[in-house]
Specification:
Structural class: mainly beta
Number of helices: 10
Strand content: 35-45%
Shape: globular
Number of strands: 49
Radius of gyration: 31 Å
């Protein structure tokens, strides 16, 4: 919901509004320019910036996308997420988890950096809706499909065929209240990457650097930018991202820049702080509002928001049309400038029939005309259906019988009453969600009150759209040793409305399999199969990436990227402080250790007798300050799985607490865990980090006195190992050579059951040993169950 807009451009007025602003002179070099020259000048201001790592985005989101109540602000669902929790891995429904949405899809720029992790176009969003959006363009799709709610959590946005002039492909339409946010994100991308965007591929792009967008896309983005002004949410986010990236979104600081580059001012020179042009952004000229259907002498109304910027005099309102009236005839300028202006149009009629009116809004030289329609009927007024999806719609009516009355809702399919209907509904609710319907099916319905029946309406549920989503735990970062088979990641598929075989493709040195035995770069699954396996295997050390391409008929999903690292050896990371470059006093300097250079704060590395070292001659000692620490000066490659080290208090000093922290950039640190060290002997400490990418490691004393630390070890991140502790991953099942295989990896016998699609048990609570068990079954679909988990297996 939009709150406060930046209604004036001057620094003075920005300060008065309570919003932080760009540093003084930040856009000075852009003044006096327009069009392509202004775009190029802005690129020179914001193009060079600090790159936040992909993992580091979670830290950015803690301040950039947080509501006043402290929850994560999700623009794809109504879920209020707890900061730092519910990150996506395996998910199924709306509200299950949150992930990092490339609002400007990464496949459009081939996953290249720094765009891949630029926080100005990445947002924390619901994983299921993010999957529905996939890499489709933004657009408008009247009658598109919104994902079903999950309890009280509602999906925002819808997917469908474009109904915006100039484009007919599939698009994702976000909620109205966020359309301006996304438009300004896109204008930012065209500016910050002015030197790169011409080579990117999308139906929204023009394959040049100016205007950068195709004609239909530019018209759409301009429309959204104008109708949904900058909100306090955006200005707060601009400041938060600036703190990390050291650049800004100029179209949030100065929304009028859009017009000087792409819009109706691109022939004029831009000067900030000058005369502010008055703009009435809502309602737009020619807008249409329908009050709907009401009964005779029953008043019905519609609320029309009135928004703008730079308005200096009240907005006057007049209406012409029989039966129509207004709540007020004048709206104060400050209400309009702060997106709090509104006017209510009322309609009441003494005779049945359709009616229309013209609402005129005026201020200064600005004039807007808006069309209003309504209808009055005798009997029960039934509105047009709303929120039509594949399986439901909302029936709406006007209550003409007062509170406490009851209506009967009748639903028909081919003139036959649908099972479960009719239903009794409170008249005062004025709407009812009709669910459990068949997709692409036409129904009719009406309401009655015992003495009268409404007209009958027709509604057709939407046609299902194909969808293949990849579900997985952890992050798709694989590791392997050169010449050896790497770890195996299990990836689940959520397949909807797909009847063709699914072709999955990756590039070398990644491989795919359905049975962990036969591996290939391309495999074929039936729509009933819900899993496959992925591994990394190659002879040449290095870093690799691939897109998992899923194709089924005309449907394509290429929005999942897998990264991998092949190492020449499995050499462990172990810092034992035996490099003999000892620092025999507390320092804020550096120490060149066996695993690299360490930055020290109030710490030293001492040569001491064996009584004070864990083993060998060298040991690290942290001082008495609460900020004493030792940190890697360069990142560890291969990510970090588990960190272990030996610790004890120094010579009789008491208990101390040590925080184990990691960072993607060496500046923003995340605490993975804390440990307590006490007593007079060494104790092994262990903390799980389980993060991919090249990471910095820091051990920081948060309380207590002097502490000795020795033998710091860190394992590589493992996409498989990070989730192996889950019972779901202690067993597996798949088909191989016409048999159903149950793989018990739990180390001891466990109970398993196998059911056919008919529900009959083929194996009922059988105790199977560790290892693989092969079961001969006829070809078909089977469900394998152990504990609270199940897997679907197709035997061919």
């Amino acid at each position: 919901m939009k709150k406060l807009i930046l209604s004036l451009l001057s620094v003075c007025m920005t300060a008065l509004s309570g919003q932080a602003a760009a540093p003084a002179g930040y856009y000075k070099s852009c003044e006096g320019k327009n069009g392509k020259q202004l775009l190029s000048a802005l690129y020179n201001v914001i193009g060079s910036h600090t790159t936040v790592s992909y993992d580091g985005l979670w830290e950015v989101f803690k301040t950039s996308d947080v509501r006043d109540n402290g929850s994560v602000w999700d623009m794809y669902s109504t879920k209020e997420w707890v900061v730092g929790q519910s990150k996506c891995g395996n998910y199924k429904n709306v509200g299950d988890c949150i992930n990092r949405e490339h609002s400007f899809p990464k496949s459009w720029f081939n996953d290249a950096k720094p765009m891949y992790s630029d926080a100005f176009h990445l947002y924390p969003t619901d994983g299921k809706v993010n999957g529905q959006r996939s890499n489709y363009p933004f657009g408008e799709c009247s009658g598109g499909t919104t994902l079903p709610s999950n309890g009280s959590v509602k999906a925002l946005g819808k997917l469908g065929r474009s109904t915006f002039s100039g484009y007919s492909g599939t698009v994702f339409e976000p909620a109205d209240e966020y359309k301006g946010d996304f438009a300004r994100s896109y204008f930012y991308m065209a500016t910050c990457y002015y030197d790169k965007i011409s080579s990117w591929n999308s139906d929204m792009l023009a394959h040049n650097n100016y205007p950068a967008f195709s004609t239909w896309a530019l018209e759409l983005l301009l429309k959204w930018h104008r109708q949904d002004p900058v909100s306090k949410k955006e200005t707060d986010r601009n400041d938060a991202v600036y703190a990390h990236q050291r650049n800004r979104n100029p179209f949030i600081d100065h929304p009028e820049l859009v017009e000087y580059i792409w819009g109706n001012k691109n022939g004029s020179e831009w000067t900030p702080g000058g005369t502010v042009e008055a703009i009435l952004s809502s309602p737009y000229e020619g807008a249409r509002y329908d009050i709907g259907v009401t009964g005779i002498d029953v008043e019905r109304s519609v609320n029309i928001p009135v928004k703008g910027s730079g308005i200096s005099s009240p907005v006057t309102a007049t209406i012409t049309g029989k039966g129509f009236s207004l709540s007020n005839t004048s709206i104060a300028a400050d209400l309009v400038n702060n997106s709090r202006g509104n006017i209510v149009v009322y309609f009441s009629a003494t005779d049945p029939g359709k009616a229309s009116a013209t609402l005129t809004l005026a201020t200064g030289s600005i004039k807007r005309t808006v069309s209003i329609t309504a209808e009055a009927v005798t009997g029960l007024p039934l509105q047009l259906p709303a929120n039509i999806s594949e399986t439901s719609f909302t029936a709406r009516w006007t209550n003409v019988d007062g509170d406490g009355a009851t209506y009967t809702l009748n639903l028909y399919l081919n003139d036959e009453m649908v099972s479960g209907y009719p239903v009794e509904v409170p008249a005062e609710d004025e709407e009812y969600t009709v669910g459990g319907l068949e997709p692409a099916t036409t129904y009719t319905y009406n309401i009655s009150n015992g003495t009268a029946t409404s007209e009958t309406r027709t509604v057709t549920t939407t046609t299902p759209m194909s969808s293949i989503q990849f579900l997985y735990d952890g992050e798709l970062e694989l590791t392997a040793i050169a010449g050896e088979s790497g770890e195996i990641a299990e990836i689940l598929l959520d397949v909807e409305n797909v009847s063709d075989d699914i072709i999955l493709t990756v590039t070398a040195p990644f491989d795919l399999s359905t049975d962990k035995s036969e591996w290939a770069r391309q495999i074929v699954l039936t729509p009933e199969e819900d899993r496959f396996y992925l591994r990394l295997q190659g002879d040449q050390p290095g870093k690799y990436s691939t897109t998992i391409m899923a194709e089924a008929g005309d449907y394509v999903n290429d929005n999942v990227t897998v990264n991998g690292t092949i190492r020449s050896t499995a050499a462990p990371f172990l810092e034992d402080f035996e490099s003999e470059n000892w620092k025999s006093s507390y320092t804020d300097g550096t120490y060149d250790g066996t695993m690299g250079t360490w930055a020290m704060v109030d710490a030293g590395v001492y040569e001491t007798d064996n009584k004070m070292t864990y083993e060998g001659a060298g040991v690290c000692r942290l001082g008495k300050k609460a900020t004493s620490s030792i940190a890697l000066s360069a990142p560890k490659e291969g990510g970090i799985g588990t960190v272990t080290f030996q610790s004890r208090p120094w010579s009789g000093d008491g208990e101390a607490v040590i925080a184990v922290e990691w960072s993607a950039d060496g500046n923003i640190w995340t605490t993975a865990g804390t440990v307590v060290t006490n007593g007079d002997s060494y104790k092994e400490q262990s903390v799980d980090i389980n993060h991919a990418g090249n990471l910095y490691l820091r051990l920081r004393q948060t309380s207590g006195k002097r502490v000795l630390i020795d033998n710091i070890a860190a394992s590589d991140y493992s996409a498989v190992g990070a989730v192996d502790e889950l019972y779901y991953h202690s067993w597996d099942s798949f088909a191989r050579d016409g048999q159903l295989i149950i793989e018990n990896r739990g180390g001891e016998a466990a109970e398993f059951s196998v059911y056919g699609i008919d529900g009959i048990a083929r194996l009922d609570y059988a105790t199977l040993p560790a290892g693989e068990t092969a079961i001969d079954l006829p070809a078909g679909l089977y469900i394998v169950v152990s504990g609270d988990y199940s897997r679907r297996v197709v035997v061919k």
